[in-house]
Design a protein that fits this description.
With about 260 residues, the protein is α/β, with parallel strands linked by helices. It contains nine helices and nine strands. Helix 8 packs across helix 9. Its EC number is 2.1.1.228.
Length: about 260
């Protein structure tokens, strides 16, 4: 997979892209990441990429010319069909399903904006628009890093274990179950006995229940999009019953 990133700050990507999984994937040729300075596609001696907004208002707006010329030039550098994605607060909320879809594409072009955003006419030259969350960032560089990391992990061969990919949080719509490793007890906190039992069926059931419990307690909104089996429904009923019992016990405790 090839990922081209158009940005005003290519130096920001050096650290995240030169470490860990992304570096190993790049070294193996599984992904190819290229960075392009949008200012290189200007035609004035000062390489100006922004201007004041028509109609007035605070801040500066990125001009359409340099961005569109960058898109067109970079698209022409490879014969692979590219999906052009604008990173913007008004885009679709990025999630695991979108990451999986993008991972199936041979090539992505990500456009990281800055200032008060893009001239609206830029949107006539893109295929998609994504946001990583409902909060304000200084620019699109960090969202680009997030998307590259999430998508790259789903490219075949990037992760050492395909099973790890399947079991990770959000890959099946649920948060991942708790993990434990040696020692079996740490500062009075033991590892759950079932994980030491060697009974793989019981371990699988425990992990599924803990995954459902963690999602129910911390991200109940995710439950709306998960298809639950009859076993899952039974486990979830147990979780809710246990939660109600714990709440009743806390309410019954005398105040100190």
């Amino acid at each position: 997979m090839r990922i081209d990133i158009l940005t005003l700050f290519p130096e920001m990507f050096a650290g995240p892209f030169s470490e860990s999984i992304l570096k190993r994937a790049s070294d193996k040729g599984l992904i190819e990441i290229r960075l392009y300075q949008i200012r290189d596609y200007t035609h004035d001696k000062h390489h100006v990429v922004d201007d004041t907004p028509y109609g007035g208002g605070a801040g500066m707006v990125m001009k359409p010319g340099p961005v569109v010329e960058a898109i067109e030039a970079v698209k022409g550098l490879s014969g692979d069909e590219a999906r052009v994605i604008l990173l913007s607060p008004s885009g679709r909320l990025f999630n695991e399903a979108i990451a999986a879809d993008l991972a199936s594409k041979p090539r992505l072009i990500l456009i990281a904006g800055h200032y008060e955003g893009f001239d609206e006419r830029v949107r006539a030259f893109i295929d998609d628009e994504l946001s990583i969350g409902d909060y304000v960032l200084s620019g699109g560089e960090i969202p680009a890093m997030v998307i590259v990391d999430a998508v790259s992990r789903l490219v075949p061969g990037v992760l050492g274990s395909e099973e790890s990919q399947v079991e990770e949080s959000h890959s099946q719509g649920l948060l991942e179950y708790p993990h434990y490793t040696r020692p079996p007890e740490f500062r009075g906190l033991p590892v759950p006995e079932v994980l030491l039992s060697g009974n793989h069926a019981k371990i699988a059931k425990w992990r599924r229940k803990e995954s459902l419990k963690r999602t129910f307690e911390h991200r109940p909104d995710l439950m709306e999009n998960v298809t639950l089996s009859k076993t899952d429904q039974k486990l979830l009923a147990e979780i809710k019953s246990e939660s109600d019992s714990e709440m009743r016990e806390r309410l019954a405790e005398p105040e100190a």
